[in-house]
């Protein structure tokens, strides 16, 4: 992959190139998890065999006049979650489990719903067809109640079978967008060019995309769609070419996280987050970088620990003299979220992050990225981001 700046002097990318060299050196030293580590894609026959074994266990329990139950790793307890700087949050090898019993009033409905979705997955895998989570919900929306119930059950099944969710032949509807210096082929052979003026929807089958081509110097992960669209309107991708921009429109869906991971595994270019200077923005950044408890069983396929926090930093608020009138007081919920993040295991290896969060806690104020428009309407794209990228203003 050639790295020839277009429209900017090579010296502009000097610090970025140094950062990339540092990341590559860390990879060679084994400081990052190699691509493809962790839970691997399962073949159709393996998935079918796993489901058949579960059904056989249920039949055996019934034959013994015992109430069948599903055993699932408990992902809601920090006791079962281990943190490694090179992987993020992932399940410990021998974790506690929870049982979903068929004879318990509290869990009998959940047991039945898992059995129903397992049968649907079996048919999908057997016929080599795919469905979205939304498709599954609408097969019986009254039974499921809401989409979240379906989403949680699919995650539980993936964890129980020990296979990535995409091996179940269930796809998520992507909400993320991508723009910038990137071309690729979709699974059906469609050529996709992200260099257009408008953004491209993140594909629903990240596993199937191939022939990725870029000259990008960096990847910018933008928290909010409004900020992403503003950067597009300001022609940021062309002015800062070559680069790639991605947004998950808030908390990222699985496909957006898989895409960010694939871009990192394929190109190993520096990746930065642009989030609001508030606990919610920090939480979103942590999901991209270190993962979440709910998906900790698949952390190796989703996390990119090499991601750095570019902005908006709480320290930037004072440094740029952003007026108090544009700031927002932290709510009680914000303070609880901030306290929760500060207690997480990965904060111990991020002293600069801790310092920024302590600045926020002391000031009891938060700021949206849009607060920068007080300085000028295009301050973010014209001054803030270029200076951060040129002089290494990330942590």
Distance between the termini: 26 Å
Spatial extent as radius of gyration = 23 Å
Can you tell me the residue ranges where pLDDT is under 50 for at least 5 consecutive residues?
1-6, 32-38
Provide the CATH topology of the largest domain: Dna Topoisomerase Vi A Subunit, Chain: A, domain 2
- Contiguous helical run count: 14
- Beta-strand residue percentage: 5-15%
Helix content: 40-55%
Number of domains: 2
Explain what the structure shows.
The chain has 395 residues and is α/β, with parallel strands linked by helices. The chain folds into two domains: 44-171, Arc Repressor Mutant, subunit A; 177-391, Dna Topoisomerase Vi A Subunit, Chain: A, domain 2 (3-Layer(aba) Sandwich). 41% of the residues lie in helices and 15% in strands. It has 14 helices and 17 strands. β8 (183-185) and β9 (191-193) form a beta hairpin. The radius of gyration is 23 Å and the shape is globular. It is found in: Nucleus. Belongs to the TOP6A family. It catalyses: ATP-dependent breakage, passage and rejoining of double-stranded DNA. Its EC number is 5.6.2.2.
């Amino acid at each position: 992959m050639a790295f020839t700046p277009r429209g900017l002097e090579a010296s502009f990318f000097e610090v970025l190139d140094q950062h990339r060299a540092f990341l590559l050196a860390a990879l060679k030293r084994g400081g990052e998890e190699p691509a493809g580590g962790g839970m691997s894609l399962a073949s159709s026959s393996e998935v079918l065999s796993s489901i058949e074994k579960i059904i056989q266990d249920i039949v055996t329990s019934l034959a013994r006049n015992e109430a069948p139950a599903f055993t699932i790793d408990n992902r809601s307890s920090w006791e079962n979650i281990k943190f490694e700087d090179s992987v993020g949050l992932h399940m410990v090898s021998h974790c506690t489990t929870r049982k979903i019993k068929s004879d318990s009033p509290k869990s009998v409905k959940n047991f039945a719903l898992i059995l129903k979705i397992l049968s649907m997955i079996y048919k999908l895998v057997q016929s080599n067809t795919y469905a979205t989570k939304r498709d599954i919900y609408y097969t019986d929306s009254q039974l499921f109640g809401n989409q979240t119930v379906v989403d949680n059950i699919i995650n539980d099944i993936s964890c129980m079978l020990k296979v990535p969710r995409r091996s179940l032949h269930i796809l998520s509807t992507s909400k993320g967008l991508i723009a910038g210096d990137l071309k690729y082929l979709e699974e059906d052979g469609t050529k996709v060019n992200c260099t257009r003026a408008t953004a491209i929807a993140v594909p629903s089958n990240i596993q199937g995309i191939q022939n990725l081509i870029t000259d990008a110097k960096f990847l910018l992960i933008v928290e909010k769609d409004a900020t992403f669209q503003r950067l597009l309107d300001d022609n940021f991708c062309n002015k800062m070419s070559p680069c790639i921009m991605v947004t998950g429109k808030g908390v990222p869906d699985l496909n957006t996280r898989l895409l960010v991971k694939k871009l990192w595994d394929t190109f190993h270019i520096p990746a930065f987050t642009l989030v609001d200077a508030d606990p919610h923005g920090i939480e979103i950044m942590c999901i991209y970088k270190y993962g979440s408890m709910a998906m900790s069983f698949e952390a190796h396929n989703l996390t990119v620990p090499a991601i750095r926090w570019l902005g908006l930093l709480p320290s930037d608020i004072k440094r740029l003299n952003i007026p108090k009138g544009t700031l927002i007081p932290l709510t009680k919920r914000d303070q609880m979220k901030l306290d929760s993040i500060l207690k997480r295991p990965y904060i111990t290896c991020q002293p600069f992050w801790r310092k920024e969060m302590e600045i926020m806690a002391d000031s009891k104020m938060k700021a949206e990225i849009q607060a920068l428009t007080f300085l000028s309407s295009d301050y973010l794209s014209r001054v803030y981001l270029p200076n951060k990228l040129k002089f290494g203003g990330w942590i």
